[in-house]
Design goal:
single chain, alpha/beta, five-stranded parallel beta sheet, globular
């Protein structure tokens, strides 16, 4: 008899909760992964950086497993089809996996659990991608927080060393099921192709490569360790897109190639500001868990009454980085070219779309969801609703970023702008598609009327 460990947002063989419990179950463990066609079929671009990142991470895991005379079993199809196949191939008694909090994931896991239950196979899930989840950080009356500051205060009050302890998975590697290596499907087998010219994409630039000194000798894949000096100076550098002042670990947190416990331990000692960023991530995860309707609706219901202009031609200019506002265009071009955008610029571009152009935040959120390498539903939704004013603890509707002032504050020498908009000083660069003060006045009028302010 054996057990399966189902990997999802936890693509590593160290400090991983479900894997630890599976390896200590007393039975041999087969690690499995599903390239879920319910998700893949919705991806419009077939050179998707995220699929490539996942493929790279799985290849690194496979290298480790093969050295232990084991293998990863990868299935391309629906989760239900995968478990129907695996339970025929192996004498499975239990499946171990980690919690996922997104609405689709919750429906998926409920269906798989019932499928397994019908075969008398138990389904065990654990907390792994966050420090605190669900109802662990609530008000004294048990209600969820909807404002960040008191949530973060309670989060820090509850934090003890217990929550930051690593799972000593390596001590139990002998429990992996021994079998000949199984081939991983190639990207082409999944209907995708490798991304070209991705040297600037955080995560993809770290794909296995000979001669890369940062590559781990054990796996051929670099451990995504944050730089201590960067975290120590994070508060001073994080807002300036032209400098390497952020960790760029979003994609590693998204797919679990790094442990949140290890990262939180470092942040606790090195940077209170960076720790707060990790807490924001958990705040939005908690909001999505308690208020799953935010996936498609405004957290503040009255904001669904805003009569968005939703001009397709203007939206297209925003997507292409042709608005005539250099900081906005630089951000959009960086996103399109690399799958990454600096967080300060994410706020500027989102504010511009929702306030200057009066385009529904859901349009922008969907575009980011298509393009961001580190796309995470909870954080992306939370960030867009913050910018639009419709979210929990959001910027007030009358807060409208002035792109020129934001540029003066955070890119005054135009280093970032000129990197992505080299024609900024040329006659070929478009004039601003809307005048700031006129757009600001229009947004205030539309918002205040819709909200009855």
């Amino acid at each position: 008899m054996i057990v399966l460990c189902w990997f999802r947002r936890d693509l590593r063989l160290s400090d991983q909760a479900a894997l630890y419990h599976a390896l200590r179950s007393g039975l041999q463990v087969v690690p499995v992964f599903v390239f879920d066609t319910n998700i893949l079929d919705d991806l419009e671009e077939k050179s998707d950086r995220r699929v490539q990142f996942i493929h790279t991470a799985l290849s690194a895991m496979q290298q480790q497993l093969v050295k232990m005379s084991s293998t990863l079993h990868v299935f391309h199809g629906t989760p239900e089809a995968a478990f129907a196949y695996w339970t025929q191939q192996y004498p499975v008694t239990a499946v171990y996996t980690n919690h996922d909090y997104e609405p689709y994931a919750r429906r998926r896991d409920a269906a798989v659990e019932q499928q397994l239950k019908n075969k008398n196979i138990s389904f065990h899930t654990y907390k792994d991608q966050v420090i605190f989840e669900k109802n662990e950080v609530t008000k004294d009356n048990g209600a969820p927080y909807t404002v960040f500051t008191p949530y973060s205060r309670k989060w820090k009050q509850l934090l003890t060393g217990f929550y930051l302890q690593s799972y000593p998975v390596e001590q139990h590697y002998s429990a992996f099921y021994r079998q000949a290596p199984l081939p991983l499907p190639a990207l082409e087998d999944l209907g995708f192709r490798a991304v070209e010219n991705h040297s600037n994409a955080p995560g993809l630039e770290e794909a296995p490569a000979s001669g890369n000194k940062r590559v781990s000798a054990d796996t051929g894949f670099p451990p995504p360790w944050p730089e201590e000096a960067l975290l120590r100076h994070y508060a001073q550098t994080r807002d300036f897109p032209a400098v390497h002042g952020t960790s760029r670990l979003g994609v590693h947190l998204r797919f679990g190639t790094i442990s949140i416990r290890m990262l939180a331990r470092m942040a606790q000692h090195l940077s209170e500001v960076y720790l707060n960023e990790l807490i924001w991530r958990e705040f939005y995860q908690m909001i999505l868990w308690h208020f799953p309707q935010v996936e498609n609706h405004s957290f503040k219901k009255e904001y669904d009454a805003i009569p968005w202009r939703n001009n397709p031609a203007e939206f297209e200019r925003w997507c292409e980085g042709q608005t005539g506002y250099p900081i906005v265009d630089a951000g959009m071009r960086e996103l399109n070219a690399t799958g990454y955008m600096h967080n300060r610029v994410r706020m500027i571009t989102a504010s511009f779309l929702t306030k200057h152009l009066l385009v529904d935040w859901r349009w922008g959120e969907a575009y980011f969801a298509r393009k961001l390498l580190d796309y995470d539903l909870a954080a992306n939704n939370g960030g867009w609703q913050w910018a639009a004013g419709s979210g929990c603890d959001a910027a007030p509707y009358f807060r409208i970023f002035n792109p020129a002032l934001q540029t003066q504050r955070f890119d005054k020498d135009l280093q970032y702008v000129r990197k992505w908009v080299p024609e900024v000083d040329e006659l070929t660069y478009p004039r601003p598609m809307v005048e700031h003060e006129a757009a600001r006045k229009r947004a205030l009028e539309v918002y205040s009327k819709a909200l009855g302010k």
